Structure formats: structure tokens, C-alpha cells
N-acetylglucosaminylphosphatidylinositol deacetylase
Amino acid sequence: MIHASSNIDPHGSDTIIRSVPSPVPSSLLAWWFQCGKTEAQQEQHQQQQQQDPLGPTGCLEVIYGIALHYLHETLDHIVLVLLAYSVLCVVLYRVMFHRATGGSRLGRWLVRRSHLPPCSRALLVTAHPDDEVMFFGPTILELRRRQCRVFVLCLSEGNHDRKGAVRRQELWDACESMGVRPEDITLVNATHLQDDPTAEWRAVTIANQLLRQLESLDAELLITFDKEGISGHPNHSAIYYATASLCLSGMIPNNCKVLTLETVNLCRKYLSIFDLPATLLLSTNWVILSWKARRAVQNAMRLHNSQMVWFRKLYIIFSRYMVINSLREINKSDVEFEILDT
């Protein structure tokens, strides 16, 4: 603190300016160390600081100041990176759907909104009612947009909470809202395929159901879960292993391709359209919906009213699977490698 004194200087000056130690601490950390001290202790502490300005408190203050400086710089950089990434995602998404109003040919090639094998008949295999919308909604809408006939095979009626009859009707309502014909929906109600995370679904039983459907429907595309099952549900993974067994034995028809829905990490799972760059860079087959089509999938999911608990309402808002599906085509060599890796 600067103090002005009115004493007369012997050399003729009217005012003497001298420095007086400030009673206010220079930082929050210094104030913390002075709390609870008596006046005598504070005077002694100030004298020690004047004699040794880099004492323990001074060193801590220096370290605190340096850490705070670098923390501010790091946070600034993180904010800038996140902002740039968000702008990139929004621009990509807008360019992708600008093609409907006459976008450039280069833009159409770089950011196609879907990349799926051409087919006229596709079979979607799920474990429970609501899987078809919760995970595969974008794929169903894109196939229907291409005038592909979609068949849905659901291997259980979801009777884990004794709501099997209700969930059966919800399955039909949700599929119809996305353009799937009622006669193209098959629901299996077998004692050995019950909705239960602790129950083991035998791969042979599932494979028989799949093979029967593939032969009767003459499907050109089979779509189901990958080995992680998106949510980690063992019933989902069991369908993949049954499909893999058919691939290994060569029982999948030659004209039928197999696509599995890719499981992503928890962070990507809830990024919605902000997972777009990662999907385009890392996936070979994908579907990205417009914002209007995304609302159609959300409305179809809401038709599964018996499942609308609070965390599923959040899922509908934030999940990428409401707007993005990334799929991987598998064949015999891929399955052999995955089984050996496992």
C-alpha cells in the first residue's frame, strides 16, 4: 500500500511517499494461511516474508500461480477444439442433406447419407420387442426408402417383466409406423428363448430359426447384432454367435450378405450427430438420417410405451442409434478371425 505523509522533508519537499505493508493478503492462498492467526503472529509472519520472500508460503503461491496459468491455457484449447469439432459436425450434416436441394457432385460423393448393399428383401433379426427401433431404426427407414421389403424376426416376446402381450402389440405398432408390413413380422414365443439376461440362448436353436427364415423368405440381406450386442445383453450376443456358426458352416445362401450393427464406446454412443466424422472415417456401411426422419424413429420408439422409463427417454434424445447406424459386412474369414481372437 502506498501512503502519503504530510511531514516536511528537510530538503524542501512537501510530501514524503513511503510504502506501508498492506494488511490485505495478496492471494486467496495467503489469506487461507493467515486465518486464525493472532495479530502478533501475523506481524511475525510479515517480517519473515520480508526477510525471506520465498518461504514455504511463497513457494506454494508460485506453484499455485503457474498451475493456474497452464490450466487456463489448457481449458481454452479444449474449448476451442470442441467448438471447431461441433462446427465440423454440423457443416457435414448440412452438406449431406443439401443434396436434396441440388448439392454439388463432389459433396454427394464425399458425404453420402447411406452406404448399404443393394437388395430387394432384407431380414432383420432381433432379440426383444423394441430392439428394432432402439438400435436398427435408421437402417429400417433407409431400406424402406429404397423400396426394399423388410422382414423382422424377433426371437422373444419380451416377457421378462410379465408384459409379453403388451410388448407384442407395441412391436407391431412400431414396425408399422416405419413402413414394415404386419405380415412381415415374426415373433417367436419359445420356452428356450425367453427374455432373461441370465438365461443361455443356445446357438443351435437360434441358427435353426434363422435358417428357416432365410430359406422361406429368399432374403438378400441379413442384419443383426455384432458380438458385443450394442448394450452388452447376452441375448443380443447369442444371435451373433448363431449367425457366425451359419457363416462358418457355409449354410448362409450365396446371394445373401450379412451385416452386423457395430457397437461403439459409451462416449460415442451418446453423441447423436456429433459422432458423424468418426462414423464416416471408421465404417464401411452406414446410414445417417435427416432430422425429420430422426423424429420418425423417436416417435416409433415412444410406441413402446411399456419401456418408457426415464433413462430410455434420455436415450431417445442423445443416442446416435436414433440417427446413425454403422454396420459391418462379415464373411467366413472374418468370423474365423474373431473367434480365434476371442
Notes: The CA atoms of residues 126 and 145 lie 21 Å apart.
